[in-house]
Amino acid sequence: MTGDRRWGAGPLRRATRNLLLPVDWRGRPLLVKYTRNRDEARQEIRGHARLREHYRVPTLHAHVRVPGGHLLAYERLPGGTDRGLLLDLLNTQEPGPELLRYMEDLTTAYREVILETAQEVPPERVVRKLYWDRAAPGGHLDTYYAEADFPVAGGIIDLPVSRLAEYVIVVNGRPFAFGWAAALRRLRTHFERDEPVWAALTQGDPTDVNLAHPLAWFDYDTVGLNSVLGEFANFLWYVTALGCWLVPAYNPAAFADHPATFSRLDANRPRLERARVNHAARTVHIDYTPRLAAPRRAAATAYWHGLLQPVADKIWPNGDLCELLRPYLAMRILAVYNLADLAPTDRLLVLARLAEAMSPTFDPATFFSIEESRCPAL
After folding, report:
1. Which secondary-structure segment (H or E) carries 74?
2. Which of 25, 178, 265, 300 is 20 to 30 A off residue 245, Cα-Cα?
3. Contacts of 183 (CB under 8 A, 6+ apart)
4. Is 210 helix (H, G, I), strand (E, B) or coil?
5. In this structure, which CATH number among 3.30.200.20, 3.10.20.540, 3.40.50.720, 3.40.50.620 belongs to the domain 7-75?
């Protein structure tokens, strides 16, 4: 007799606070997710049901309460080592036609749904997890930075961040006035306002590990009416900094099945050239070389021209994108990782980028390495 192998399981992976286990059950490939947070599990179940009305998502076959949390069993989409995610299309030497087709499909899907569902709503109706909650009392800005002080870059520039307002920050020859406490206060104030917010139905956390290839969306606990500007800032900062530099450096386990990410790290991490402080002149000089591999530049450019600009032209025809995007970008820079936990060189580079973003001369197209839109082939 031949054995009837009805099930098998792959290696257990950790994704942030959750556990993921690939399982084959009677010929059906599943991805079983275990989460301890029951509220997040309920939100994910609701979010999946809502998102599937507009976007391609894996089927949720079952969900069940278990001691200490929830199990959710999803359809497992094709994938493997360095396969199955937008991430893998970005971990290449050059942006091939597959990446460009993918970005066309992605931006088209988003553009249609965002323009169909966009509405001005009070801030309390927007999904708050990634921005409002992190700026609120007890959120990440508080838990990371309240009453905290730390060097700009220990062993390189030992000036405390609390004293940056006393100095001119000169980044690649451009002088900026930047105050640490003022920046935090400005963000808290922005997200305390009760003015209506333009929001649309999205997944909410559009990272290159939450976007499958072929195109589908993973991770549903931030699904709902998300700030359109927050959506833009999230994708662009992740594709140009978090996903190719900071997350691989500080959460390498997230890329266990995508090791090509690490071979591309040097191609995407900014290189610090010089850093010095002149106490007599009250200046801090930081010179760095931006580095972003061609596939990530191409993805950011396609997103900008295919989604951000067309949507912004409809929603904010006379708006200043610099002012509109700034608070959301600054929150992504400050409230994902605690800057005090970064290595001194990385902290210095992130602070330089934050000073650029908070400057009145901030240009998001330059900041995100956006290239000019190419004319379509005739």
Report:
1. strand 69-75
2. 178
3. 330, 334, 354, 358
4. coil
5. 3.30.200.20
For residue 287, give Cα distances in angstroms to 89, 271, 332: 31, 9, 23
Task: Please state, in angstroms and rounded to a whole number, the distance separating the CA atoms of residues 49 and 187.
Answer: 33
CB 256 within 8 A of CB 243: no
User: What are the E-state strand segments in 154-238?
Assistant: 157-160, 168-171, 174-177, 197-202, 211-212, 216-217, 224-227
Written as one letter, the residue type at 123 is: P
Domain boundaries, the chain: 7-75, 86-367
Q: For residue range 251-277, what is the model confidence (pLDDT) as tens digits?
A: 998 899 999 999 999 999 999 999 999
Which strands form 197-202's sheet, in the order they lie side by side? 119-121, 197-202, 224-227
> What is the C-alpha separation between 334 and 214, in angstroms, rounded?
32
Q: Which residues pair with residue 64 across a beta bridge?
A: 71
For 322-370, the DSSP string reads HHHHHHHHHHHHHSSS-GGGS-HHHHHHHHHHHHHHHSTT--HHHHTTP
**pTM beyond 0.70:** yes
Residue 178 identity: F
Yes or no: say if 60 and 223 are a contact pair by the CB < 8 Å rule.
no
Per-residue exposure over 266-298, b if at least 16 CB sit within 10 Å of its own CB, e if not? ebbbbebeebebeeeeeebbbebeeebbbbbbb
- pLDDT exceeds cutoff 80 at 57: yes
Among residues 133, 165, 136, the alpha carbon closest in space to that of 149 is found at 165
Mean pLDDT of the chain: 93
Answer whether the bond into residue 214 is a cis peptide, omega within 30°. yes
The residues facing 175 across adjacent strands are 170
